[in-house]
Design a protein that fits this description.
Helix content is 21%, strand content 41%. By secondary structure, it is of the alpha+beta class.
Length: 193
């Protein structure tokens, strides 16, 4: 049942994002508006992160729950997505040369891993690095508890932080996709506090 729902979500992401890429590391955030394209930040600008999150995705009245393990640093960013029971579904890795998808199960043709990395970057990467990298009509408004990415006056993406930066709600209006990522501390973090 979990895999069936997951594949439905992947089909949606594939449908939404297929045909939107013109640059190898860029995605359209608002349909086919070329001015509203986000290009992934190079890994040399990535913050050092190592975190596990429970991710709830709401799309068209359906909710999907996944686990995400994210590791980033100046050499690479890797995100592994798992079922709630710990089965690996796929991993996405960005290094200096490319973005690579490594599925553990068959994925829809044209599945776009750059979209997942773009959402993570827009939610978690430092505001000043994002702001310096935006092009076209894209503009970032940010506070300690909220970020909004706009194209001119239209909001494309909202991120609201839930007490700590690793936990957030994200709304991507073009999708329409709502996502809530909740930080799951690991045993080492609990023992050190």
């Amino acid at each position: 049942m979990i895999r069936c729902r997951f594949f439905l979500l992947l089909f949606f992401l594939h449908f939404l994002l297929s045909g939107c890429q013109q640059d190898e590391n860029c995605i359209a955030l608002a349909g086919h508006n070329d001015q509203a394209r986000y290009c992934l930040l190079p890994t040399a600008q990535a913050p050092v992160l190592n975190l596990t999150q429970e991710v709830q995705i709401d799309w068209k009245g359906q909710t999907f729950t996944l686990l995400s393990v994210l590791e980033s640093g100046t050499n690479a960013t890797t995100m592994v997505t798992l079922t709630p029971t710990g089965q690996t579904l796929f991993s996405v890795r960005q290094d200096a040369q490319k973005v690579a998808l490594n599925p553990a199960a068959p994925l829809p043709s044209g599945f776009e891993p750059r979209a997942l990395l773009a959402l993570v970057q827009l939610a978690l990467w430092p505001e000043e690095k994002l702001r310096a990298h935006l092009t076209g009509c894209l503009r970032l408004e940010a506070s300690a508890t909220h970020r909004t990415l706009r194209c001119d006056d239209a909001a494309l993406l909202d991120v609201s932080y839930l007490g700590r930066p690793e936990s957030y709600r994200l709304q991507w209006y073009a999708a329409p996709l709502n996502l809530q990522a909740t930080w799951l501390p690991d045993v080492k973090d609990d023992a050190s506090e």
